[in-house]
Design brief:
The protein is mainly α. It contains 14 helices and four strands. The strands form two sheets. Strands 1-4 form a two-stranded antiparallel ribbon. A two-stranded antiparallel sheet has the order 2-3. Helix 3 packs parallel to helix 13 and helix 5 runs parallel beside helix 11. The radius of gyration is 19 Å and the shape is globular.
């Protein structure tokens, strides 16, 4: 088999297993949480939020441990760009998205603060242990805030999940949780190996591979969840999925390389990629919140988001 086919096959296989294992891990994790009577919102935040960002976290961690910090950082920033520009854009093209104003006034504000803080920490073109711990501290604050908010709210979107759990199937759920976690880790290793190998073969930086190929692959769970949600007209899930995933990427995924393998950043991370990520975070608010009663991201705005994504991809190469 020619050298180039091996990493390509590894990437494709890795992405397929990433999507499957992330979905299985999320579903079975939610069932276990429900068995132990954990509140629906906490299931949504910790299990679903972590589940769709698990590929990014694992790929970032494995890449950092192997010294491929460019791929690790590119994966975090690139996934945020993919989530807003491509995932939300494609979802809006399929079906205009009605946005809950409270999401923009609370979760979006926290995402904006997190994005600004990440930029300040990376301003010196370095990501180290202190930076990583600060980002994780912000994530902990968000968890505390959300848990406190959940105490006075009733969320019914997870009711069907509770009804679908059979007590006699506990063993099967635990087995599938462990199996999916093992597959998740293994497929992440395949993606890291395939991505770094392609970078070497084509003579491009691992940052570019992280921003493009790996970011697209690890964003597939978010894309799948959003398309499924928009077809069911669960619009809060679409926007919440994007904002929640970007929060995890900014505060957890980006923290990982700083903690595991402190490194200097390539200048283009702050000069190009971070600015695009920040611009899209603002653009999300502008297309969703138009100072009117019904906040809708329509198809035309979906095409604008996708167009920004295409221009960014063209500029990378």
């Amino acid at each position: 088999m020619p050298d180039i086919l091996q990493p390509i096959f590894a990437l494709i296989a890795g992405f397929v297993f990433l999507v499957w294992s992330a979905d299985e891990f999320t579903e079975n994790g939610a069932k276990i949480a429900n068995i132990f009577n954990i509140s629906p919102l906490i299931i949504g935040l910790l299990i679903f939020g972590f589940g769709t960002s698990a590929p990014e976290m694992l790929v970032s961690g494995l890449a950092a441990m192997q010294g491929n910090t460019g791929l690790s950082i590119g994966n975090a920033v690139g996934s945020n760009i993919f989530n807003i520009a491509l995932v939300l854009g494609v979802s809006a093209i399929i079906e205009p998205i009605r946005v809950n104003e409270n999401i923009l006034k609370k979760e979006w504000i926290f995402l904006l603060i997190a994005t600004f803080c990440a930029g300040l920490l990376m301003w010196d073109n370095r990501l180290d242990l202190t930076d990583g711990l600060i980002l994780l501290s912000l994530l902990a604050l968000f968890f505390i805030y959300t848990i406190n908010e959940s105490k006075n709210k009733q969320h019914e979107e997870f009711d069907d999940l509770a009804k679908s759990i059979e007590k006699g199937s506990n063993t099967k759920v635990w087995v599938m949780l462990i199996v999916s976690l093992i597959v998740l880790i293994s497929s992440a290793k395949l993606v890291v190996w395939g991505g770094s190998s392609l970078a070497k073969l084509f003579g491009v930086t691992d940052l570019i591979i992280g921003l493009t190929v790996v970011a697209l692959g690890t964003s597939l769970p978010e894309l799948a969840v959003s398309i499924s949600s928009v077809l069911k007209k669960q619009f809060d899930m679409v926007v919440g999925n994007v904002i929640g995933s970007n929060l995890f990427n900014t505060l957890a995924v980006l923290a990982i390389p700083g903690i595991i393998h402190p490194t200097d950043l390539l200048p283009e991370v702050m000069e190009r990629d971070y600015l695009v990520m920040l611009f899209l975070t603002f653009l999300l608010f502008l297309v969703a919140y138009k100072f009117r009663k019904n906040n809708i991201i329509n198809r035309a705005e979906g095409f604008i988001l996708v167009a920004v994504f295409c221009f960014y991809m063209w500029n990378l190469f």
